[in-house]
Design a protein that fits this description.
By secondary structure, the protein is mainly α. It is built from 3 helices and no strands. The radius of gyration is 69 Å and the shape is rod-shaped.
Length: about 350
């Protein structure tokens, strides 16, 4: 603003100087006309009585007056040229000022549009920051729930793994008992074979006794009855031994099936134990991942707070820029008023120059 005030002051001083010169010039010209008229009257009334030297002095006075008038005209012409140059320079400055004002107005519009866009983006960022903070809170709660569930699952898997280990031991114990039972059944089968062998021999002896009783005739008749009973008993023993043997075979078959089933159960339990161990490892991996996600959630919460602070700072900056733009618009209005004043002063100077010339 100071250069505008200086320009106005300069115009005011130029206008005052031009006015004083114009006033002095008119005064001197009027005085010269008056002197000429007085000298003319004196010359006409006393021309005949004056000597030649008085005429010479009068002519010299007229020449001096003419020279003074010429000097005044030169000074007025110089001042007029200076005022014209100054007016032209001020016109150029006024044109530059007008262009600067137009540029400032265009920049103001661009900045205003940019501020609107920035304000819209700032609002969107604020909404995004709030949504992010809400999502982080929900994520933190979800992570806590998953972590608690995973911890319970890990404890359950530990108990299941221990139970499976005990079950494996029980199956191995049952397998050993089945082996022992198989050996006992084998011993029973051997005993049955011995009984069957004894029954066959007893039958053979009873058959020989019957033959000898038949040879003895009437004396061996009672012995023949005993031999027949012994033969029947041997047949019964042999049949019973055969039934026992068949039962033992069936029992051995069942024992083999039970043993095979126990081996299959052992294999299945081992696979289950392996699966539980793998699941436990996966649960631990999940827990590690949950810890990392929890850390990331904390970092995300910090970023959300920083984003919210940045949005607040941007909003404050937008308000400051808007205030600056308002002041700039007011300055543009003041500059427009000053421009009008400069045009008015310039017009006054041009009118003054025309009146002087």
């Amino acid at each position: 603003m100071w250069y505008v005030l200086v320009a106005i002051l300069f115009f005011a001083i130029g206008f005052g100087v031009a006015y004083l010169i114009n006033w002095k010039l008119f005064r001197d010209v009027a005085h010269a006309k008056k002197v000429l008229e007085e000298h003319k009257e004196v010359y006409e009334s006393h021309v005949a009585g004056y000597e030649g030297d008085m005429l010479t002095k009068f002519i010299q006075a007229l020449k001096d007056l003419h020279n003074e008038v010429q000097m005044l005209k030169s000074r007025v012409h110089g001042i007029s040229s200076s005022i014209s140059d100054t007016s032209e320079a001020l016109g150029m400055q006024r044109e530059s000022l007008r262009k600067a004002m137009e540029l400032i107005e265009e920049s103001s519009k661009v900045v205003s549009d940019s501020l609107s866009n920035v304000e819209s983006i700032s609002s969107q960022l604020d909404v995004a920051a709030q949504s992010l903070a809400s999502s982080v809170e929900v994520l933190s709660q979800t992570i806590s729930t998953i972590e608690a569930s995973t911890t319970d699952a890990e404890h359950s898997l530990v108990h299941v793994e221990a139970s499976i280990g005990k079950e494996v031991e029980n199956i191995h114990s049952d397998s050993r008992r089945l082996k022992e039972l198989e050996r006992a059944v084998g011993d029973i089968e051997n005993i049955t074979s011995h009984i069957e062998s004894i029954a066959n021999k007893t039958k053979l002896l009873s058959l020989n006794a019957s033959i000898e009783a038949a040879r003895a005739g009437e004396a061996g008749k009672g012995f023949s009855v005993v031999a027949m009973e012994i033969r029947d008993l041997a047949d019964s023993s042999r049949e019973a031994a055969e039934e026992v043997r068949q039962t033992v075979k069936n029992l051995v078959k069942l024992i083999h099936e039970a043993y095979d089933n126990s081996l299959t159960r052992i294999e299945d339990v081992k696979n289950l134990q392996k699966l539980v161990a793998e699941t436990n490892n996966k649960v631990r991996v999940i827990m590690d991942a949950i810890e990392k996600v929890d850390i990331m959630g904390s970092d995300l919460a910090a970023v959300s707070e920083e984003l919210s602070a940045s949005v607040t700072e941007v909003s404050d900056s937008i308000k400051r820029i808007a205030s600056t733009m308002d002041r700039l618009v007011e300055s543009i209005k003041e500059m427009a008023y000053v421009e009008n004043e400069i045009e008015r002063i310039d017009k006054s100077i041009e009118d003054l120059l025309e009146s002087i010339q």
